[in-house]
Amino acid sequence: MHLLGLKCNEFTFPSVLKACTSKKDLFLGLQVHGIVVFTGFDSDEFVANSLVVMYAKCGNFIDSRRLFDAIPERSVVSWNSLFSCYVHCDFLEEAVCFFKEMVLSGIRPNEFSLSSMINACAGSGDSLLGRKIHGYSIKLGYDSDMFSANALVDMYAKVGNLEDAVAVFKDIEHPDIVSWNAVIAGCVLHEHNDWALKLFQQMKSSEINPNMFTYTSALKACAGMELKELGRQLHCSLIKMEIKSDPIVGVGLVDMYAKCGSMDEARMIFHLMPEKNLIAWNIVISGHLQNGGDMEAASLFPWMYREGVGFDQTTLSTVLKSVASFQAIGVCKQVHALSVKTAFESDDYIVNSLIDAYGKCGHVEDAVKIFKESSAVDLVACTSMITAYAQFGLGEEALKLYLEMQDREINPDSFVCSSLLNACANLSAYEQGKQVHVHIIKFGFMSDTFAGNSLVNMYAKCGSIDDADRAFSEIPDRGIVSWSAMIGGLAQHGRGKEALQMFGQMLEDGVLPNHITLVSVLCACNHAGLVAEAKHHFESMEKKFGIQPMQEHYACMIDILGRAGKFQEAMELVDTMPFQANASVWGALLGAARIYKNVEVGQHAAEMLFAIEPEKSSTHVLLSNIYASAGMWDNVAKVRRFMKDNKLKKEPGMSWIEVKDKVYTFTVGDRSHARSEEIYAKLDEVSDLLNKAGYVPMVETDLHDVEESEKEQLLYHHSEKLAVAFGLIATPPGATIRVKKNLRICVDCHTSFEFISKIVSREIIVRDVNRFHHFRNGSCSCGGYW
What's the pTM value of the predicted model, to 2 decimals? Predict the structure, then answer.
């Protein structure tokens, strides 16, 4: 038109400028602006408004504002043009400032001005200003305007004030599709999914037909409430409407089926989508992760990468979570490298996911390195790091990090406290566990079931089953984890009959057991020597609860039979197992063979263990002990020679004791402690008292081929005896001594602690690899059965 010499007028220029705005073509817009100036139409308000909008929407706000200021007489339309652009580009504060400036200049806003301001309030979440604008619209008589009413419904819904959103919606005489979509979407946004679906049904009953945006919100509501059948009905309606190929609808369907646990249907919809965008990929990967398909989630990422869709921090974080679940350290490192290459490494979300993944893969050093290099250490990062420390036996590091958190004024949440309690449980750090308990009370987590379960577990593993029982009684909503923790704790403390009574109480409360609960029940029978009860519970597992016995249940039952000397029954049970026996089963038999000095069964169990775990030294040690107890010294020599030739070292006996918030470690004959002289002097003093009380060292339990006097010396210097001696000199008279040992307590230490508990009038609690021993007044809670 311009080339033909035809002149443009005040109607042509706005249309051309609108086209430049739509294409965001600032270069062409500048050329049109030049022609506008040349032809003298720059003083026309309609053309000037179009120029203001063009520059603003093309990102040039400076020139947009300069042109706006040059308009000689600005009407409400000019002001609307300016601040609507600012709202559109999310410069919300500036838009509000312009609105206030317009009102102060004496120009009365119209319904479009108010709608723009309401949209600004919705974007910024400023409900207070939104209410003021609402009042202003009523004052000016625009409350009945459909455009303003829809904006108000949307604003109230987005800021979370659903009651007001619904109230405004109900005041609309004839709500249109925009009204319905705004109120339904708002309900879904704030997880009032039941309201959303109720409104959706009301909408269908009215004369307004839902569109794809309505269906997308309804699908999200179904996903949130896991209503798969209703979701399928919506899917059928979408097929009838022939909009099933729309990418927004496709994403909604994939999300709904995934969150309802139907991954086959989610994958089918995903594969049928003609264009799979980043959101669709993220949802299907997350869906697999949420439904236990960790391998599938991780395997989708390379396919996504090859498709050239790209990825974001949500993708990488989800893949790292899936990798952590099946501990694929190689994939974890590849994703880490990719995050470095694509500059996502500095993203806090990715940093926290990497810490968590490396921690769960057992590469704590890598997790620590990322944690220390992170510029922003927050609660999530600290939680991941503390959990990693606790899971891999670095409880002291977990507690140190918690102190650092306090120095940084980062308040814990219930997950941090639970991880700290697990660290204390692994260390048997009773006093530090009590301090964490105080923090749980201080920060108001006592009603949190997760923290309550961890308290029960911590107290039980730190030797205070009474404290565990009190913590259990304070859990408001006791689920299967709570009951299992308490039953398992009672079992570990040898209170088998109480554990079985609690199991009965659990069933009366309507809580059904899982396979972990039943392992604890069998352990309770084992530690109390209740063979008949164990058989009853083992045989009724599948019949009564529909739970098929697993390797752990068979291992418990075989251990029970073996400890009772019923080797024939134990071997028959091994032969009738529906799967091949694993190391725990043969380990139980080997342990029982050692107790009864049964060389034949011991040799058979050891041979099976050599095939399963050839690198494990404890099998050779136990077999050597069986040979030694039977006086087969040539066989002992062969086993020890084999261990030496293959560089298999016996796991050293270690004991831990907590004194004044610090955990001390002892090994056999240890003299590294700062108070070693006092410890050994106390041992000599106790030794004299033991001899006077009638204790005789059980040298026959020491299987070293050395003189009897040397055997006595070796027995006196066992790690648990050193720990108890330290406890006697480092704690107040009468205080309970709590010791943890990494191996089974030996018979001689067990006997000597019975004497010591009576001589010094103290309770000594020893947690060995199998159970707890409470030594009090000359006897042990195990009754000699361990």
Answer: 0.72
